[in-house]
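so the lab meeting is tmrw and i was supposed to have these ready like two days ago... anyway. pasting both below. for each one the top line is the aa sequence and the line under it is the structure tokens. i havent really looked at them closely yet so no promises
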Amino acid sequence: MNIYVGSLHFKMSEAELKEIFEEYGEVTSAKIIIDKYSGKSKGFGFVEMPNDAEAKKAIEELNGAEVSGRNIIVNESIERTDRKSNFRGGDGDRRGGGGGGNRRDNYR
């Protein structure tokens, strides 16, 4: 199961994150998301646990727990769809504003 972990201390390492979840079972990966421009933590990450029962127990017990002085947010990560296919609503609704110019030309 893939687990979202938010409100992490910005200095937390992936090894520390993994260690926290290993108390509940096997952890196959722990990844902290890093800002590509600053190189600093964005304060959230993901943990992968192969055993769903262990993962659910970790979620239940760690959500709201204090870690490094912060109350972390822990829940099951929902896989998101490709953002590009949903750009501008994805349902053909093109009512978004902006631009303008000479709009008369659009209706000839």
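ok protien two:
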Amino acid sequence: MPPLTDLLALLGIDLVLCAGGLRLLNGKRGMGCWTNWIALVCFVIFWLPVGAAQLPVLAYIRGVSSDLSVTLVSLACLGLCQRLFGVPAVAQREKIALYGAVAATAIFLYPLSLGWGDWDVYRAGWGSYGMLLALLGLSLLCLSKGFRLLPMLVGLSLLAWSAGLMESANLWDYLVDPWLVIAAFFQCMKTGAQGLLLQFRWPGAAAKVIQPQRF
């Protein structure tokens, strides 16, 4: 029986893959309700053992992707619930705030962790009180502005970190991962391009409230 951390890591990868597949298939002509069954079949197939070592397909994918953050897996679960069970979509402003925070964090975290400065930000993830206070302050600031998604994800990451649900003992690995960072930068560039386009075509339109969208 594999360790619990390995099972949770594989489950997280499976959920993210299924959520991504559903998003790609969403809106395709002729698919309709078949997308739900396709996602279920893929979820099962990824667990089938293959190769000489008889490891599940997810184990080979994990060798490339590494473990995914609690934040990314939680977003995948939220997206699956929206598409499969009709859970209300998250407001676009919530997503913009989250992706902006992730992108800003990555700009400082990865270069400094690679030795581009005198301060190793990654070291703070081993249990620095300063980092915990910073996360608390960020969460309280978001709540005061009416944002709930980011504080919820921070809270889930902290709970998982406290319980040691991942192989890593560093809090940063629970909060962000390279795949989430790539998605965050893409969404930020997409939002910025859309805002510039709206401003160019209809001055003042970019300031309007954007309707909720699905992940």
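from a quick look at the 2nd one: The radius of gyration is 19 Å. The chain has a mean pLDDT of 87. will dig more after coffe
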